[in-house]
């Protein structure tokens, strides 16, 4: 099962990278076909390194670590109650304890 999951995640990552590369190639093809640089066209993925700060742009949207930290804090503040998540945790704990008791019963 572990090998299946590893292969699955590797294939998904490869497909994601392939999609991004395809978008970049399509963008370059549009630039070549048009014949001149249009400032409205942007690269699919762009990384700018200024030494101490790294800026990433994905589909024209700037991404920074500050944005990610703010979103994480916002999610922690909301701390919304998810009924299905709590039910799933309780079911998994019940199944784990039941299987543990069954194994102890069989082995003794």
3D architecture notes:
- The chain has helices spanning 2-34, 65-78, 83-107, and strands at residues 45-49, 54-58, 61-63.
- Helices cover 67% and strands 12% of the residues.
- The model has no long low-confidence stretch (mean pLDDT 80).
- It has a three-stranded antiparallel sheet.
- The protein contains three helices and three strands; from the N terminus they run αβββαα.
- The protein is of the alpha+beta class.
- The two termini are 29 Å apart.
The helix/strand class is alpha+beta
Main beta sheet strand tally, sense and closure: 3 strands, antiparallel
Helix content: 55-70%
| Strand runs, count | 3
Strand order of the main beta sheet, please? 1-2-3
Mean pLDDT: 80
Radius of gyration: 24 Å
Count up the helices.
3
User: What's the quaternary structure here?
Assistant: single chain
N→C terminal distance: 29 Å
Uncertain parts: none
Q: Strand share of the residues?
A: 5-15%
What series of H and E elements makes up the topology? HEEEHH
What is the gist of this entry?
With 108 residues, the protein is α+β, with helices and mostly antiparallel strands.
What characteristics describe this protein?
alpha+beta, 108 residues, 3 strands, three-stranded antiparallel beta sheet, 3 helices, 12% strand
List the topology elements.
Blueprint: H1 2-34, E1 45-49, E2 54-58, E3 61-63, H2 65-78, H3 83-107
Antiparallel strand pairs: 1-2, 2-3
């Amino acid at each position: 099962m572990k090998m299946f999951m590893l292969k699955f995640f590797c294939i998904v990552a490869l497909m994601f990278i392939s999609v991004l590369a395809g978008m970049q190639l399509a963008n370059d093809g549009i630039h070549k076909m048009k014949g001149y640089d249009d400032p409205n066209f942007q690269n699919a993925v762009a990384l700018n390194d200024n030494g101490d700060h790294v800026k990433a742009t994905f589909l024209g949207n700037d991404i920074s670590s500050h944005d990610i930290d703010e979103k994480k804090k916002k999610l922690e503040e909301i701390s919304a109650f998810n009924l299905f998540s709590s039910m799933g945790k309780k079911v998994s704990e019940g199944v784990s304890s039941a299987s543990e008791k069954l194994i102890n019963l069989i082995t003794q």
